[in-house]
């Protein structure tokens, strides 16, 4: 008995128990004998079917079939248990009497008592949710870097007739809730940048920015963590005429970091002759490296309308990023994975408006704004990423990549104190993001123009 249920194992009977107690009898795997048999007779004690209305298997991998009073078990194919592309891989590697790692894997899977638990085991062992999240995390860090650049240099420069430099630092913390097969995670981002602006004419300038971004990410429920160093070069054109601002940039970058994936699960384990049961835990920390190359472009246009004492500033922004994630090779555990390259083009469009007021602060100004907007993602990723579990042989499987497009609504507040002491500025910002699940972002930074 465990989990509030009574599980009938081989050699047991119900003679001493009131038959009215049991509507359903759950059969343990000791009746099945060899864990990996596809079908066979159960040879139940006569008291078990006579004391119940239904006899069922306690393992999701098997079902009990009754034919004219004879009870048999039948193994469910993995295609029945899940519609994931992993089902084919599991059938291909199913059982090898000379491979203890395979046998342990199927002991774990056979321990699942429901379809939901079976899917959870697949999530833990094969990193479903973990690996599809990586490219979205990379995209978050790139978007943060580009928004930092956009916010710091898109406004009209104070010196249009000479070259100028900019140096700055920004930080942001992002909480992304999980959705479908994407794990939730928390990102902490820190970015340093330096650049130079070249005036072309009074309303137009160009320039370059070099940036370094540090990404520290933790997955929800202790599923793992990630640490990345990102380097990016950006070239831009910036147009300011009266109350209109148009900004366009092209960027290339490279990131390199470390991944830790935690596999933590418990399962019911039988000994070789099924005479004893133990409760086992698989607790592994798998380590690997991650590398990304990326390229992309960003465009933004806005127009400010002054209504004393406030202003209204509609804005439209588009961004496209091509990310080329190199292969990942895990180490440190029984079920470490080797994953193939993953490529994707992640694009988004944003339309919103800012409602704000500017206050004079000595020689500088304080800009307070409420920002509202909607964002649509139009992403194109590889349909699947191929993997191999080294301990299970040379067979390859696939992890399905879903969640390509999302629509979200944003509301945020921003405060900026600008043009202090010869070009020194500070800002702080908070955004709440409404999508399938709610997320938020909070950040700030400082810059110097000289």
List the helices and strands and how they pair.
Blueprint: E1 7-8, E2 24-27, E3 39-41, H1 47-50, E4 54-57, E5 62-67, E6 70-75, H2 78-81, H3 86-92, H4 100-110, H5 115-126, H6 130-153, E7 164-176, E8 185-201, E9 204-219, E10 224-241, E11 244-270, E12 277-303, E13 305-307, E14 310-325, E15 328-329, E16 337-339, E17 342-361, E18 364-377, E19 380-381, E20 384-389, E21 396-400, E22 407-420, E23 424-434, E24 439-449
Parallel strand pairs: 1-2, 2-4
Antiparallel strand pairs: 3-6, 5-6, 7-8, 7-24, 8-9, 9-10, 10-11, 11-12, 12-14, 13-14, 14-17, 15-16, 16-20, 17-18, 17-19, 18-22, 20-21, 22-23, 23-24
Averaged pLDDT, please?
89
Helix content: 10-25%
How is the biggest beta sheet arranged?
Answer: 12 strands, antiparallel, barrel
Overall body shape: elongated
Major sheet: arrangement of strands: 7-8-9-10-11-12-14-17-18-22-23-24
DSSP helix count?
6
Strand content: over 45%
Radius of gyration: 29 Å
> What is the distance, rounded to the nearest whole angstrom, between the alpha carbons of the first and last residues?
74 Å
Which class do the helix and strand fractions yield? Answer: mainly beta
| Low-confidence residue ranges | none
Question: Would you list the SSEs in sequence order as H and E?
Answer: EEEHEEEHHHHHEEEEEEEEEEEEEEEEEE
Total number of strands: 24
């Amino acid at each position: 008995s465990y989990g509030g249920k009574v599980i009938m194992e081989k050699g047991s009977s119900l003679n001493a128990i009131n038959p009215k107690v049991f509507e359903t009898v759950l059969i343990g795997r000791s009746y099945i004998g060899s864990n990996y048999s596809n079908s066979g007779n159960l040879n139940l004690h006569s008291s078990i079917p006579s004391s119940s209305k239904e006899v069922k298997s306690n393992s999701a991998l098997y079902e009990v079939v009754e034919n004219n009073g004879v009870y048999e078990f039948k193994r469910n194919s993995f295609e029945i248990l899940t519609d994931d592309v992993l089902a084919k891989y599991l059938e291909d590697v199913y059982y090898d009497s000379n491979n203890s790692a395979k046998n342990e894997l199927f002991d774990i899977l056979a321990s699942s008592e429901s379809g939901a638990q079976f899917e959870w085991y697949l999530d833990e062992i094969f990193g479903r949710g973990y690996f599809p999240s990586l490219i979205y995390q990379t995209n978050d860090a790139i978007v943060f870097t580009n928004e930092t650049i956009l916010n710091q240099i898109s406004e009209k420069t104070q010196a249009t007739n000479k070259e100028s430099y900019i140096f700055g630092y920004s930080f942001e913390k992002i909480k992304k809730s999980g959705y479908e097969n994407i794990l939730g995670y928390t990102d902490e981002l820190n970015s340093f940048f330096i650049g130079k602006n070249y005036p072309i004419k009074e309303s137009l300038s160009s320039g370059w920015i070099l940036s370094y971004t540090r990404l520290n990410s933790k997955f929800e429920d202790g599923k793992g963590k990630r640490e990345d160093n990102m380097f990016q070069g950006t070239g831009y054109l910036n147009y300011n005429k009266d109350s209109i601002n148009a900004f366009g940039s092209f960027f290339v970058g490279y990131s390199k970091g470390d991944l830790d994936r935690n596999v933590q699960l418990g399962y019911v384990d039988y000994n070789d002759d099924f005479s004893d049961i133990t409760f086992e835990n698989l607790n592994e920390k798998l380590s690997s490296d991650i590398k990304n190359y990326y390229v992309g472009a960003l465009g933004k246009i806005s127009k400010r309308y002054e209504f004393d004492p406030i202003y209204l500033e509609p804005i439209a922004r588009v961004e496209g990023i091509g990310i080329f994630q190199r292969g990942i090779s895990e180490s440190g555990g029984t079920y470490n994975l080797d994953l193939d390259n993953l490529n994707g083009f992640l694009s988004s469009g944003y339309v919103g408006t800012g409602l704000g007021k500017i206050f004079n602060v000595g020689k500088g100004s304080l800009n307070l704004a409420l920002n509202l907007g909607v964002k649509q993602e139009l992403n194109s990723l590889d349909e699947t990423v191929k993997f191999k579990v080294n301990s299970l042989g040379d067979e390859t499987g696939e992890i399905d990549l879903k969640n390509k497009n999302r629509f979200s609504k944003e509301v945020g507040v921003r405060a900026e104190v600008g043009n202090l002491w010869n070009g020194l500025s500070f800002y702080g910002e908070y955004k709440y993001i409404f999508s399938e699940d709610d997320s938020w972002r909070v950040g700030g930074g400082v810059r110097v123009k000289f």
